[in-house]
Design goal:
Elements: E1 6-8, H1 20-31, E2 35-40, H2 46-58, E3 63-67, H3 88-99, E4 116-121, H4 127-140, E5 144-147, H5 153-167, E6 175-180, H6 194-201, H7 206-219, E7 225-228, H8 239-248
Parallel strand pairs: 1-2, 2-3, 3-4, 4-5, 5-6, 6-7
Helix pairs in contact: 2-3, 7-8
Length: 251
């Protein structure tokens, strides 16, 4: 696909999938590609989380994205239970401690980990709440952020300006700004502007729209992009469309 790194999701759609850490390890071993694996606090307790992270470090996987995971519905809870032994901010802090050689109990590990932990920014949520949560994640040790896809570059700048006004300083960890390639029947993150829906209905390709947005991102100074391919029914990803965007932009 020609990307700088591959982000491996954690059980998307709450479905049974290959564990994201093991999938990332397989990808790196077989392609040499840089990978980022996702870990959801919803499903694991503290012992399991830190053991999994030790295994990731052993395999040379350094980049981990910490998320809470989508909540189970009342119907789903009849067959599966959430754990949430860590909150995402707590797991970020725990990873920072592991990098200093301490486990969740404060006991010494045989060796320090070398993990780079990041977190998510979702601007579809209440902006004040997301502002506060981002601050807590940064203070807990997040070294980078993945911003869920947006379709208006002003959302990115407005968020950063709000953060700086609130805390008197800029957000220091780098942000990979989400850009989603759409298709007429694909799953969408957040609200899609009317002009995009109209263009898709008239036959314009999602890749072409993504390239227009990418130009706007770059012109505004955003150069770290988290590209999301079209997500089709059943969960299939259209990686050909994502490849087309990358190649058309000259990478």
């Amino acid at each position: 696909i020609g990307s700088d790194f591959i982000s491996v999701a954690y059980n998307p759609g709450k479905s049974t999938r290959v564990n994201s850490t093991m999938a990332a390890g397989w990808i790196k071993a077989n392609t040499g590609q840089d990978v980022l694996f996702t870990l959801a606090t919803r499903d694991i307790n503290k012992v399991a989380a830190e053991s999994l992270l030790l295994g990731a470090d052993l395999m040379g996987l350094q980049n981990v994205l910490v998320v809470g995971g989508d909540s189970f519905t009342e119907k789903e809870q009849k067959t599966v239970k959430a754990v949430n032994d860590f909150k995402p901010t707590e797991l970020l802090a725990a990873i920072d401690s592991m990098n200093q050689g301490l486990d969740y109990r404060g006991h010494k590990l045989r060796s320090r980990t070398n993990l780079c932990a990041g977190a998510v920014i979702d601007l579809s949520h209440d902006p004040e709440r997301e502002n506060r949560l981002t601050r807590r994640k940064a203070e807990s040790g997040a070294e980078f952020f993945l911003m869920q896809p947006i379709f208006d570059v002003r959302l990115h700048s407005d968020f950063l300006e709000r953060y700086e006004r609130t805390y008197g300083e800029s957000l220091k960890p780098p942000i990979f700004c989400g850009l989603q390639v759409l298709a007429p029947d694909s799953r969408v993150f957040g609200a899609v502007p009317g002009w995009i829906t109209k263009d898709l209905s008239r036959g314009r390709t999602g890749a072409d729209i993504a390239l227009q947005l990418l130009d706007e991102f770059v012109e505004s100074g955003i150069r770290s992009i988290y590209l999301v391919p079209p997500i089709m029914k059943g969960g299939r990803r259209d990686y050909e469309a994502a490849t087309g965007v990358i190649r058309a932009y000259g990478y």
